[in-house]
Amino acid sequence: MKQDKKYYPKVLVVGNTFHTKSGGGITMSNLFKGWPVNKLAAATYMMSISEADICQIYYQLGNKEDIRPFIFRLFQKRRKSGEIILDDKSLKKYNSVNSKESQLYKSIHNLVEKIINFIGLHHYVYRLKLSIEFTEWLMKFNPDIIYAQASNLQLVKFINQINDELKIPYVLHIMDNHYNTMIIGGILKPYWRSVLKKEYLKLLKNSKSRLSISEGMSKIYQQKFGLDFLPCHNPVDSDSWLKYSKTNWKENTPFTLMYAGRIGIGTEESLIDIAEAVEELVNEGLDIRLKIQLNINSFNVPPRLISLKYTQLHNFISYDQLPQVLSRADVLLLPIDFDEKAQRYIKYSMPTKVTEFMITGVPILVYAPEDTAMVSYARVNDWALIVNKKDKSELKRAIIDLYLNEELRKSLGERGRSIALLKHDSKIVCENFRNTIAMAAK
After folding, report:
1. Which of 107, 121, 199, 379 has the fewest beta carbons under 10 Å from its own?
2. Against a cut of 0.85, is the pTM above it?
3. Helix/strand/coil (H, E, C) string of the chain?
4. pLDDT in tens, 47-99
């Protein structure tokens, strides 16, 4: 296969989808931005959140691929398998149709899910298999290579099956430490761990190239599995972000701390610590507020946050509005929880929002354990003020320093922006990514 400087192989994404609602979808959308639309397709069971900006050719992995044991089919969502060509008009129609589920159905489905998980049958019930229809569609699209993030066992096994039967090369991109968290085993957890170990090692060894989300993850996974991983983080489009990037670090009235993103495993407790610190600082005389941007409909907001007087919850805005909204803040927050459960999941990860926060020119406060990949990256490159222990007094001192010191805010903001442009500009990252995919497709 002859390649030139700008060779774009035909890529099939398996599992994830192109969207702007979570880190994996955002990173993937940014990496593939500008890819020829006729050379990009996605096979996913997440059609309800799929978007048409980057990719328009989709195959919905439906009931012909998601074949469950008979009794469990009674509680299975009906998804029609097959190709879907998306544009803005068809996307709105598709999402309106697929959003209609009764509350009774959701309640029954959630109850069945809990029973399945407790017994240890989750990975027996939830499996994907190559169907005749998907195989025919796949061969018709004829991809040069597959790109996958493989965040659960059913996708790990599915990609292995595709490779075994159809011999299509693939590139694997590790976004979080899913290897430590993807097993939902109940009383059968040891068995499913052994299955995962075998299937995951097979997946890694057969991958033509392995990408990770951070340098720290690449290092740890190389040590763990004896294989090389290239770090590939979320790129930022400097043309879109720089026009809103901060140039004046004089404080707002009130002084505004901002967090944008999900609240849940790995972030909830540390974010609550920050919110409670803000309450105490206001009572001590500081004019300060915490603003949180999140999808209120998608996440359960902790009652402790709702009850706080000086924490303001705002429904999440569209992705293209983020540069302008983030740049208005005085400080942006990157919290990671300090408990063991959070560490298993997020220790080696790099949140998608890191590079986006950096390029805004807004100073960043990192509140996270010292041995996380994010803290390591911030410390080595000096782009954030870091609080590395669960200590409310130290957290308050850091906020006060940022509140009082305009020069500190300016130096951190300028440093973050310069590192983002040097290491994470989409012009550089996307070209390296394209080259990695092209070389793997040879």
Report:
1. 107
2. yes
3. CCCCCCCCCCEEEEECCCCCCCHHHHHHHHHCCCCCHHHEEEEECCHHHCCCCCCCEEEECCCCCCCCCHHHHCCCCCCCCEEEECCHHHHHHHHHHHCCCCHHHHHHHHHHHHHHHHHCCHHHHCCCCCCHHHHHHHHHHCCCEEEECCCCHHHHHHHHHHHHHHCCCEEEEECCCHHHCCCCCHHHHHHHHHHHHHHHHHHHHHCCEEEECCHHHHHHHHHHHCCCCEECCCCECHHHHHHHCCCCCCCCCCEEEEEECCCCCCCHHHHHHHHHHHHHHHHCCCCEEEEEEECCCCCCCCHHHHCCCCEEEEECCCHHHHHHHHHCCCEEEEECCCCHHHHHHHCCCCCCHHHHHHHCCCCEEEECCCCCHHHHHHHHHCCCEEECCCCHHHHHHHHHHHHHCHHHHHHHHHHHHHHHHHHCEHHHHHHHHHHHHHHHCC
4. 877 888 899 999 999 999 988 877 776 667 778 899 998 875 565 555 544 54
